[in-house]
Structure formats: C-alpha cells, structure tokens
Write a structure and sequence with these properties.
By secondary structure, this protein is of the alpha/beta class. It contains 6 helices and 5 strands; from the N terminus they run E-H-H-E-H-H-E-H-E-E-H. Strands 3-2-1-4-5 form a 5-stranded parallel sheet, with helices on both faces. It starts with 5 loop residues before the first strand and ends with a helix.
C-alpha cells in the first residue's frame, strides 16, 4: 500500500482557498485531515499564514473565522521542527521558509501557485506542483 503523499502548502494556496469556494485551492483545503495526503507545518510557516491571512482585505472572512481555519490547518498538519536552513536558495526569504519546511519534513512536494519561485526545490528532490496537478495525481490509480 502506497503511503499518502506529504506536502507543504504555500500561503498563496490558502489565500486563494479562502477567497473563493470554487477552484482547486478550496478543494485542497477541504481535503485536509481526510487521509488523502499529509501536510507539514512549522512555526515560521504558521506565523506567515497568520500574518498574511489577517491582512486587511486579504480574505473575505472575519478574524475569528481566519483563526478557526488556522487552528484546523495546525491541528491537521504534521508539526515539524526546522533543523536545516537553506537560506538563501530562493529570491524571497518567505519562499525559503516554505522550502525549509518541505526539506525538514521530508515532503514530496510544495503545493503553490508560484511554481517559478521554487526553482531550487528540484535540486534537493522536492517537486513543485500547482494545486490542480497535485489533486489530479491524488485521483490517479495507486500502483
């Protein structure tokens, strides 16, 4: 039996999911904690999620609703300490933080809408996928 894939979800995917109930990002968010995949969270990544999602006008939710989503993301995620720093590998330090979470959590992939921002991930064996491609792969028969 094949193990569920382990991923890191980039902040832009959560923003997209909370802006619209249509689309791949929301579909991915609704699958958290259902056993189809595992997602890794780190303290720096959760701080990033919180900071971005609480920006005025970023998502059409109350602060309490955003906190509820973040609580669920945290509760359903695999908590990972960061032991190896890869900075600077990417042009944005916040993207380096996502890459570090994926490496330290031994993830197969980073799920993001900004594929080009993670060009260095392949060099350390981490695939970078859009939510649509990741979810399509989940539906493929397991070998």
């Amino acid at each position: 039996m094949k193990q569920a894939p382990k991923i890191v979800i980039d902040t832009n995917v959560l923003v997209s999911a909370l802006r619209s109930r249509r689309g791949w990002s929301f579909d991915l968010l609704t699958r958290l904690g259902k056993g189809q995949f595992e997602h890794v969270v780190t303290v720096p990544l959760l701080i990033e999620y919180e900071e971005v999602l609480h920006r005025e006008g970023m998502v059409p939710l109350t602060s309490a609703a955003v906190d509820d989503v973040l609580d669920y993301v945290c509760a359903s995620g695999l908590r990972q300490q960061v032991h190896f720093l890869w900075r600077p590998k990417l042009s944005d330090v916040r993207d380096d933080m996502v890459l570090e979470a994926a490496f330290n959590g031994q993830c197969e992939a980073i799920v993001t809408w900004n594929i080009r921002d993670f060009s260095a991930a392949a060099a350390i064996g981490i695939e970078v996928l859009n939510p649509d491609l990741f979810l399509k792969r989940l539906k493929e028969p397991k070998s």
